[in-house]
Amino acid sequence: MLIRVASRTVIEVFEIGPDEWQLWRKLRRAALADAPTSFKSTLAQWSGPGDTEERWRARLASAALNLVLSWNREPSGMLSAVPPDSKGAIRLMSVWVAPAARGRGIGDAAIHRVVTWARAQHAYRHLVLSVKADNTKAIELYRRHGFLDSGPTPDHPDERWMCR
Question: How far are the Cα atoms of 10, 37, 68, 94 from residue 5, in angstroms, in the given order?
Fold first, then answer.
């Protein structure tokens, strides 16, 4: 999927799987280094003995959808969605946009693509995600796409559930 944001800006959205584990690894490690408090896992957990091809492939295989977004041909964003749970909710996770690419529509393109996928593959269902309460830019992105605050997550008082 190709999205032209401005006359010279192009965002590409790619679905990837376990065979593209090295690309996912590069982006995920960049995300964990850039925003260490925004995710449930840490760069240390995905380094050293935790940094194996088998583990990266398994991570990609466990999600129903893995997206990589490219801005002007440079991988600049990512998002995963897990299959619907027993309540029919599809959970978004690992949402990240590289600092140099923020504010250029990459997050919007990612959310748009996952909503389109959820409609086509799962007759829509509910979308849910968790976000740190102080991550105002991410919260603004999710609100623009119809996500509403659903209260604190049970494990982290500084983290909020958002649902669409």
Answer: 6, 30, 17, 23
Which strands sit side by side in the sheet containing 2-6, from one edge to the other?
Answer: 2-6, 9-15, 65-71, 74-82, 89-97, 126-132, 159-163, 148-152
Q: pLDDT of 79-123, one tens digit each?
A: 999 988 878 899 999 999 999 999 999 999 999 999 999 988 877
Tokens 């991988």 sit at which residue? Answer: 75
Q: Do the strands 89-97 and 126-132 form a parallel or antiparallel pair, or are they unpaired?
A: parallel
CATH class given for the domain over 2-163: alpha beta
Domain ranges of the chain: 2-163
Q: How far is CA 43 from CA 48, 50, 77, 104, 112, in A?
A: 10, 9, 17, 26, 28
What are the strands, taking DSSP E only, across the chain?
A: 2-6, 9-15, 65-71, 74-82, 89-97, 126-132, 148-152, 159-163
- pTM (predicted TM-score): 0.90
- The Cα 84–Cα 81 span in angstroms is 9
What tokens were used for 164? Answer: 């669409």
- Helix intervals (H) in 8-135: 21-34, 53-62, 106-122
